[in-house]
Amino acid sequence: MSAVAGGNAPVRRRGPDLLPWVAGAITLIVLVGFLAYPILTTMANSFAPQGESFNWFNGTLANFERFWTSALYRSALWNTIVISVAVTVLSTLVAVPAAYFVARVDIPFKPLILSLSIIPLIAPPFIGAYSWVILLGRNGIVTHYVNQWLGLPMPPVYGYFGVIVAMVLSNFTYVFLFVQGALSASDPHLEESARVMGASRWRILRTVVLPLAIPPMLAGAMIVLIEALGEFGVPAVLGGEMYVLSTLMYFQINGFFNLNGAAAIALVNVAITLVAILFLLRINKRRRFVTLGSTTRRAALIRTPGMRIAANLYVWGLLFLAILPQLVIVFTSFSERWPGTLWPLQYGWSNYTYVFNRVVGPIQNSLILGAIATVACVVFGTLTGYVAERKSFAGKWALDLTIMLPFILPGIVTGVALLVTFNAGPIVLTGTAVIIVIGYFVRRMAYIYRSVVAAVAQVDPRMEEASTVAGATWGETMRKVTIPLIAPGILAGAIIVFTTLISEMSTTVMLYSARWKTISIAIYERLETQEISAAAAIGTITIVVTLVLVFSATKIIGKSMSDLFR
Amino acid sequence: MSAQDTATAPASAERRRRFSVEGLTKVFSTEEGQVRAVDDVSFTIEGDTFFTMLGPSGCGKTTTLRMIAGLETISEGRILSDGADFSRMNAFERNIGMVFQSYALFPHMTVFENAAYGLRLRRAPQATVDASVKRILAMLQLDGLAHRYPADLSGGQQQRVSIARALVYEPGMLLLDEPLANLDAKLRVEMRDEIRRLQKALGVMALYVTHDQEEAMAVSDTIAVFSKGRLMQVGAPFEIYARPASLFVADFIGKANFLPLRGDGASAATRSGVAFSGLARRAAGSNEADWFGPEAQAMLMVRPERMSLTPKAATGAGTLSGTVRRIQFLGTFVRYLIEAPDADRPVLIDRPAFVDGVVEGSAVDFGFAPEDAVLFERPGR
Ligand SMILES: Nc1ncnc2c1ncn2[C@@H]1O[C@H](COP(=O)(O)OP(=O)(O)O)[C@@H](O)[C@H]1O
Ligand SMILES: [Mg+2]
Fold first, then answer.
1. Which residue in the set B90, B172, B203 is minimally distant from A1, CB to CB?
2. What mean pLDDT comes out for the span B271-277?
3. Which end of chain B is more exposed for a tag (fewer CB within 10 A), N or C?
4. Which GO molecular function, any one, fits this protein according to its record (chain B) (predicted)?
5. In CATH, what number does B3-239 get?
């Protein structure tokens, strides 16, 4: 029988398929140039005398000796450890009951609760921390009423107290979301069989539910710990006289432009982070659980009135506290006159008109820098994520490590590394937009990488093979099959990346220049000149834009807001 | 195939295509070491032959198919298609159609676009695309479904779409890797006949993979039996059934009874001393010594439907005998399972009807005509 297709289509012969090699080579160059090279340069220069670049003859430990000789360094190290541990432990303690209540007790508005719980994660830079001064400072609103009604003095907000409160309330969400997810998905059969065997509710909680919650709890705690070890904004605003490693790094560079000293601090900071991660991974490794049951049935909800009242009070109370900074920012942005009084004397829109004339530049800068970096993240994150998921090759762990490292590196360390690397030497980029874009790119590519790895894992490799056999080159298969299928995942990742970049602060403070100030810097400068209401207005705009972007991401991929951060 | 043939003929149905695999070998490096998944496999397929690779799971069929498609690198050997060396061509240049067990349809494309995929890659004009896709969809009874998405199709319909997608651009050959494994039993039988009908109608060479020997017998012109990466035997279904070249093939294709024999040459006899002469002899596979146990020198193979069965006669000397353990009525025939001292496994005997006077527990005699038996000699002596 003759042809179906009306004439034999010619077989196309096109020689070797070069595109994957070209794409791979470019990606490798970018990863090595902007990731591996800066990290290695920073490590090397931390062993060079102040003001010099490392070579084999000038190696010294002087930069590290300060951790013994200088009280400032010692206390910064100690403060970092104490605060991080305290924040991690307290966040976990606060979050686990909330997660249990939302997962297992019959309370209304659960989707709303989950959505609201991510608001602390998108607090605008600096002003979010400052709102605690408005609340808990010497003239703060809460301080006033606690004084007046309870007759109690509040501890000073600057220092440990303020830093820990602010960080716990903005980070507990990670633990909350992880544990809540595991508890609502876990197999109800386990608990039911425990109950059938006559175990009391408390016993079930202790022996069945809590053990299930521990792996996700540790995973969430690890993220909190990483965030806390690298946090810059909160200690910068609320630290007062107290330094942590991140603010000390900033101080070394802004005060003395001591790049080698900052590099040494960065190295110590990273070392602590790695030790902490290894420790938590080790705890988690000893426990092996299957938390996701085979059934789609959800765990039975507790309906006793006492539990429901307790759950509602606890969850809404915690959410209120966590969202309070944002509420205070919005409130403050409408205050026109607030001269040290308890409440503002006059309200209005004037902060917005004032701000609009002054922050168009920074907003533009944030959008441009964020957008370029996001595109770069999408391109290279997609390529590397695809390769990591699909191909097996020697040295894959190195790729994984290179990309994931900035994920755990404090933002300020990334900033220091780029500054150290591109301030002198073959390529000088300090003061340009390029260095900021590189910083953003390096820090956020892992997000796209991870979403792409997850999305590609969902695509049957046979589908790509079917395309190849049908006559498609690698590029054609990517364009027509793979990319369309993983696009929603990439897009959602891109929106999250863009969102977080608009208000990025810890890398930006290291890399910005007079020409390239961003929203974060604009807020910081307003706070320094005590234009609190103006800073609040910029903060409010940031909150609104961020929420709109996150919301649109949820619409695009049809996931809930909380799932984007889980 | 003569030189003249190759010289004439633009690609057309008259031209006899020739596809061959020579010494094909695949070695995977795994953590446990090197795995020879495919070991020195050679075969040739011509014209519109329906060629099936048959073997138990893990014997290297998929790996062979994937090397042919260009989805897996070749460790050793050559793949030649009409003289062209496939190993020098990219997978996307080989002009092959492939059907996957998981269908692997593109979920973001309609049935029409899935089917049109290969033509679009070949930059076919829209009119050609429309006509060809319409025609192939009609041949596969998918007419009304052109604008549906794969997620809205049944398993059988998805399978048809994946076949349409593989055939629409007139590939030089069609590869199918267990295409029916995900369908239910009834649909499997329907689809396998349909695949063959279509393959013959389009005159395309087919290379089919299955682990189901009944399926292989039903659809194939030629069957290649694989075991542990090696090609054991190639032949028409009747040939490999009636004249298996090794114990493995005899056992794997259909049902077989094995009787270990002692002694050799003319005096071979079963354990109980029943002797045979004038049997067709052949060597078992070189790696099949462990089939024989310590004492047997040869192994007699007879198909169940070739065996006779009678109630035990009083004078039983010189015949095979045993006890009926189970009688299964299987519709078109009756199967007797007999425990006999001369065999290690129960002897299967298939009769067209119940044998008078034989019930479960009966003592029976059984036998066969010498020309229906094959004697495999112990290898490597
Ligand atoms: N990518 C691979 N890496 C290592 N071993 C493999 C790989 N693919 C297949 N194998 C091994 O090769 C052997 C043959 O596999 P396969 O060709 O899939 O068998 P079949 O299709 O006949 O079931 C198996 O032992 C399998 O484990
Ligand atoms: Mg297979």
1. B203
2. 82
3. C
4. ATP hydrolysis activity
5. 3.40.50.300
